[in-house]
Amino acid sequence: MLGDATLPYPMQVATWNINSIRTRLPHVTQWLQDHVVDVLCLQETKVIDGDFPLQAFEDIGYQAHVYGQKAYNGVAMISRVPLQRVRKGFAAILAADRVGDLDAQKRVISAVIGDICIVNLYVPNGASVGSQKYDYKLRWLHCLRDYLQQLLAEYPNLNVCGDFNVALEDRDIYDASDKANHIMASAAERQALQTVLGIGLQDAFRKFTAEPGQFSWWDYRAASFRRNLGWRIDHHYLSDPLYERAISCTIDVEPRKLEKPSDHAPVIVEYPTP
């Protein structure tokens, strides 16, 4: 319930593709202790649920809800207070015949905290334009629209976050001049994501800065981070009422400077005390 004294306000919700919880666990737990984020949405955990290091988070005052698979994909929600209505996969909302094979990969989990429904996503990469994996990505995004539309009807305050593997605008890429047919920037991917956002979602980060050169992912190759050859593909998309409430949205590049880092940086949105 809104204003419940047990809820953490002001509230911070973060998203971070950590590219293996086993490899990055010390980075994640230290970051949580340094930042005291209320809900952390992780992607690419790459472990089955039984192998997720729950105790490491409990030791620092957090609880975890996980939805993973061996070696690939996987999402988790780490929180300081109990989450409600935790739902895993598209099929938790949509009919099985609509979902088809799209839940075989563990990529979506949602939960409620206070009056906010948080959806944590790891959108398929797509590999290369025109490939089977690319077609799968487009189908997945089309299903995502249906999924979020149903959630939005239930929860007017919707925070959809995660690694979307799409740079929606040219200013979200270090050099967009040759990326028109590049994975994560092709017209079909951008249109599919725009269709998702068309249900009534807005980019929290762009509420606070219009500047180019702001990125959340840098390839490990070609000294991309040092040269800031990045992409902004990790997002918080908010329903209209929640967009109005948001008071900041930032990218924390510091974890990308660590030894053996994830190639992504955390993105944090903050809401004020109601």
From TrEMBL:
The keyword Acyltransferase does not apply. The record marks D234 as: Important for catalytic activity. It comes from the Bacteria. The record marks H264 as: Interaction with DNA substrate. Keywords: Hydrolase, Magnesium, Manganese, Metal-binding. PROSITE patterns: AP_NUCLEASE_F1_4 (PS51435). InterPro entries: AP_endonuc_1, Endo/exonu/phosph_ase_sf, Endo/exonuclease/phosphatase, ExoIII-like. The record marks N165 as: Transition state stabilizer. The keyword rRNA-binding does not apply. SUPFAM superfamilies: DNase I-like (SSF56219). Coiled coil: none annotated. The active site is at Y122, D163 (proton donor/acceptor), H264 (proton acceptor). Residues 14-264 form the Endonuclease/exonuclease/phosphatase domain. CDD domains: ExoIII-like_AP-endo. GO terms for molecular function: double-stranded DNA 3'-5' DNA exonuclease activity; metal ion binding. It is an enzyme of class 3 (hydrolase). Belongs to the DNA repair enzymes AP/ExoA family. This is Exodeoxyribonuclease III. It comes from Halomicronema hongdechloris C2206. The gene is xthA.
